[in-house]
């Protein structure tokens, strides 16, 4: 049995974590779920958005599956997602975007995996006012050699492990010459250690256009935090949207798996949430735990439901069903 910390989180988090644990349990995954709180619900009920017990549980068990957490916009507590990534140095944010069967999209044959540096860049939260009258704000971006080497090496190692052919590094070194310039320079150095992998670098604005014009050209992508945040949502739009894109946050000592999407307050509690994104995150977790067979069985069941039982799927991907009908359709295939 693996002990996995389960954080249902906020909004649709409650519904989709229930769906995903049901599916994994039905597939016979050997997981003992340890449920913990975090997010704005925890803040309301317990007076903190990140209780110590949750941090201690992740420290102890090292693997977590997390639903989305609501972060107040503008003022209020800082993102707990960002805090967890920093606290456990989960420097690799890995977001695959792969075309799925029977999902309405003008883009076919997309199969890219984005590696986003997860602890630095503009997301370190170092912002301040200049002067007294709140008319001038500044934000600091940090890029270090150590963190860049780690994420870029992780991208190349992934390419080797999974038989990928190309790594594209995305930057803005023409303008941000020091920060993303350093990232680009290190990319060039590391690429030399992997002569069998094609290495390419693109400026982020061009990258955004290329991803829409010809997304099939991309394989593994590696970039800094902000660019990775934006481009990975773009990538998920190419394959059916936020409801179907999973993600992993991996460090040397711990790993946290979560969907790319947020808590979707507009549909929370209505049974409309698509659990696929969190489910695909959970499959990345099973692969991380080297439970490849169970992951593959569940993926095959999802593909069958998309292909043959579209009516049971949630509406965001063109179905006519609910979180529950979709979950039950997957479980039925796993049981049969
Ligand atoms: P969002 O991802 O929650 O929602 C964007 C749109 O996509 C909404 O129309 C929503 O209904 C739809 N959507 C998202 N996930 C879906 C799913 N599984 N099934 C069907 N439709 C889905 O982004 P938004 O509205 O910008 O953020 C809401 C809250 O989530 C904010 O507090 C934000 O800070 C937080 N958030 C948390 C993240 C995390 O925990 N990792 C990531 C992104 C946002
Ligand atoms: Mg994002």
Descriptive terms for the model:
336 residues; alpha/beta; 2 domains; 12 strands; globular; binds 1,4-dihydronicotinamide adenine dinucleotide; binds magnesium ion
Structural class, by secondary structure, is alpha/beta
Let me know the average pLDDT: 95
Question: What does the radius of gyration come to?
Answer: 20 Å
Number of helices in the DSSP assignment: 11
Bound molecules: 1,4-dihydronicotinamide adenine dinucleotide, magnesium ion
- CATH class of the largest domain, please? Alpha Beta
The number of domains: 2
> H/E order of the elements?
EHEHHEHEEEEHEHEHEHEEHHH
Helix content: 40-55%
Q: What CATH architecture of the largest domain do you see?
A: 3-Layer(aba) Sandwich
Strand content: 15-25%
Sum up the overall morphology in one term.
globular
**Which parts are unreliable, with pLDDT below 50 for 5 consecutive residues or more?**
none
Distance between the termini: 24 Å
Give the spatial strand order of the biggest sheet: 2-1-3-12-11-4-5-10-8-9
CATH topology of the largest domain: Isopropylmalate Dehydrogenase
- Quantity of strands, as a count: 12
Largest sheet, described in full? 10 strands, mixed
The CATH superfamily label of the largest domain reads Isopropylmalate Dehydrogenase
